[in-house]
Amino acid sequence: MSPLLSVASRIVASTKNFTVLIAVCALIFSCNIQSKCLVMVTAGGGHTFWRATTLGAQQAASDYGYQIISRGTYESTTASAQLSIINFFKNYACEGLILAPNEKSVVDALIQDYDKPIILIDRKPEHSQLPVVKTNDYFAGELAAKQLIELSQQTIDLAIVINNQTEAHLNQRALGFTNQLKQTFSSVNIKHLHSGRSVGTAREIIFHEKALIRKAQVIYATNELGSLAINQDLAEISNIKVGFDCHPALIKATTDNKMLGFISQNAFQIGYASAAKLISNIESKATLSSLYLKPIFIDYAFIQKLPEANCQAIYQHLAQTSVN
Questions:
Q1: Are 213 and 206 contacting, i.e. CB atoms less than 8 angstroms apart?
Q2: If you write DSSP's letter for every residue of 248-307 in order, what string do you get?
Q3: Helical H runs in 209-255?
Q4: How far separated are the first and last CA of the chain, in Å rounded?
């Protein structure tokens, strides 16, 4: 006998109440009728980007009669935390997995021990054959440099790049930025500082390298954590700051002219497209293929045109633009 039926029998036996019997039977019926589901495991919990990505996946799932069961690790630090979440969600018997892998080892483990379709989001380990929906990171770095050159109208001799150098997708953002700068300023000196995986470690490296940073005309961060760190700790330094990923603090810094602007990813569409592609594969065996989305540069002028100065308005604008 199932646990629910056992509970029902005890309740009915103790109450002899027909109304209770009907209510318990309705509970059993509702618990056994579940819509199809996808598991979504992100590389962080509270970040603005992950919230928007999850909303996109939930919208796609709703459109196609599915549910999203979503959970993110507190910090994008360890593989074991993600694998624990994925193993726990196996109990839900969902049809597929949407994953932003913290480390290559997460993907390696799943290839050996996960028998449902998988699509990656936001990042993809080098040499992985799994499909991914993500920003075109090299293009994003180029875009940041092009906007910097156009808007600053000054010669750049020294630029600082704050980047977690262990992440392939972040390295692409750094590479696109530095290559574009070198094309324009042949003698530019570019220094790369390793930010680690938290705001705290990024702030620590900024503290130790502040003398170098003061000499630079430009400082560029390749993700939200690094962007928050340069916004928080370098406000008194008058160099040009370019960030990555939408966050209320970066919007305020841009409108207060403390930051030139930041790259915003198409977060909602990343979530929506990943869920839609996975569902199409499950329902009709459509081939799972990768999709690379265009980001946008958010500066003061762009923010002034928004109906509201927040990330939701930016993501809504991006969701209506071309994805290729």
A1: yes
A2: HHHHHHHHTTSS-EEEE--HHHHHHHHHHHHHHHHHH-PPP--EEE--EEEEHHHHHHSS
A3: 210-215, 224-233, 248-255
A4: 53
pLDDT along the chain (324 residues), means of 10: 40 41 37 73 80 94 96 71 89 94 90 92 91 97 95 90 91 97 94 88 91 94 92 83 94 94 95 97 94 95 95 87 57
Token match 């953002």: residue? Answer: 173
Query: DSSP label at 92?
Result: G
Give the containing element (helix H, strand E) for 85.
Answer: helix 79-89
Closest by Cα among 267, 266, 261, 286 to 276: 286
Q: What are phi and psi of 195, to 5 degrees?
A: -90, -15
CA atoms of 324 and 289, how far apart (whole Å): 13
Residue 68: per-residue pLDDT: 96
Measure the CA–CA gap between 294 and 272, rounded to whole angstroms.
Answer: 15
Q: How far apart are CA 199 and CA 204, in angstroms?
A: 9
Tokens, residue 318: 């991006």
pLDDT for res 278: 97
| Spatial separation of the C-alpha atoms in residues 317 and 306, rounded to whole Å | 9
User: What pLDDT is attached to residue 75?
Assistant: 59
The DSSP line for 94-153 is -SEEEE--SSHHHHHHHHHH--S-EEEES---TT--S-EEEE-HHHHHHHHHHHHHHHH-
Residue with tokens 């109906």: 307
The torsion angle over the Cα atoms of residues 39, 43, 49 and 54, rounded to 10 degrees, is 10
Between the CA of residue 28 and those of 12, 15, 17, 21, 63, what are the distances in Å? 13, 18, 17, 11, 26
Helix (H, G, I), strand (E, B) or coil at 94: coil
What phi and psi, each to the nearest 5 degrees, are found at residue 307?
Answer: -65, -35
Q: In a 3-state reduction of DSSP, which class is residue 111?
A: helix
Distance in angstroms (rounded) separating the CA atoms of residues 131 and 160 = 32
Cα–Cα distance measured from residue 44 to residue 167, given in angstroms and rounded to the nearest whole number: 15
Q: By three-state DSSP, how is residue 124 classified? A: coil
